[in-house]
Structure formats: structure tokens, C-alpha cells
Amino acid sequence: MSIVVIGVNHRTAPIDFLERVSVAGDDLRKAVVGLSSLRNIREAAVLSTCNRTEVFAVAEKFHGAYADIRDFFCELGGLLPDDLHPHLYSQHDDAAVSHLFEVAAGLDSAVLGESEILGQVRQAWETAQAEGGAKATLNLLFRHAIETGKRYHTRRHAEQAI
């Protein structure tokens, strides 16, 4: 079992491409339900903002989950795998955990240190919880990521006040 993140963001894809694979509202809930019901995925959460769409998952088998999530992005954007591949990134286990913590802190944002992403991470987690996509592993991961993001922003604001 692995924790994986697979996605596209402002560093890997142009804005028009990001718009094609963005997920909002009821579609976000449907995406979580659909992804978490796949054979290779135990848990799933989708973070979709103007600068990124990422799927965080607890995977039974990395390669199977990668293929499932790649197919999700292809269907979402009406893309062929060859069109998606140059823009898609993936990380697993410790690197995936670190990535979520950096995202929550705003360290992987177009504007370094921006705090809006922390609320978007929280919303992604709450949606995943409500739709049954976040269970023990993703609940623990997202809770710690949000706590870490809050600590980072609190320290950053305190340092700026000095």
C-alpha cells in the first residue's frame, strides 16, 4: 500500500490545460466517489484550484492506481494519455506526504507562501470525508498537513511583524 499524489499544476501545464482538468462543485464529489471506488484505490481526495488539480490516494498497487488516475484526468479533460503525459507528475510515500505539506503551507504555490491554499486543502479533505474517500490514512495525512500549514503561516506572520 502506498500514498500517492498524481496531478498537474502551474509548473507543469499552461493555464488553458489546467482549466481542462479542473474539478468543481458537485463534480468534485463525484470524482472522489468514482476514484475511491476503483479497485486499485482505497482512499481518494481531489484538490482542484486555479493552479492545480491533484489526486491524493491510498493505493493498493502504485502502477494500477497511476493508470486509474491517469485515465480519470484523460476523461476529465477529453485528453489522450500522450497529450496528458508531459504535464502529469506523480510522487509516492514520503515524497507525496512532503508535497501535501508544502502545498498546505503555500510553498508550492505560484505566489510563494500564499495562505488561500490552506483553505482549499481543508475543503478537499472535507469533501473527501463527506463522500467516503478519506478514511484513516488520508484523514491523518490531511489533518497533519493542515496543522503544519497553520504553523507555517503563523510563524511567517509573526516574523513579518518583527
The gist of it:
It is built from 7 helices and 4 strands; from the N terminus they run βααββααβααα.
Characterization of this structure:
The chain has 162 residues and is an alpha+beta fold. Helices cover 56% and strands 18% of the residues. It has helices at residues 15-20, 25-36, 62-77, 81-84, 94-105, 116-130, 136-161; strands at 2-9, 41-49, 52-59, 89-92. A four-stranded antiparallel sheet has the order 2-3-1-4, with helices on both faces. Strand 2 and strand 3 form a beta hairpin. The longest helix has 26 residues, at 136-161. The radius of gyration is 15 Å and the shape is globular. It starts with a strand and ends with a helix. The relative contact order is 0.18. The mean pLDDT is 93.
| Termini separation | 45 Å
Q: SSE order in H/E notation?
A: EHHEEHHEHHH
Question: How many alpha or pi helices?
Answer: 7
Number of DSSP-assigned strands? 4
Record the strand order, biggest sheet: 2-3-1-4
**Radius of gyration in whole Å, from Cα?**
15 Å
Give the averaged pLDDT, no decimals.
93
- Principal-axis shape equals globular
> Which consecutive residue ranges, at least 5 long each, have pLDDT under 50?
none
Helix content: 55-70%
What proportion strand?
Answer: 15-25%
What class, by secondary structure content?
A: alpha+beta
What would the keywords be for this entry?
alpha+beta; 4-stranded antiparallel β-sheet; 7 helices; 162 residues
Secondary structure elements and their pairing?
Blueprint: E1 2-9, H1 15-20, H2 25-36, E2 41-49, E3 52-59, H3 62-77, H4 81-84, E4 89-92, H5 94-105, H6 116-130, H7 136-161
Antiparallel strand pairs: 1-3, 1-4, 2-3
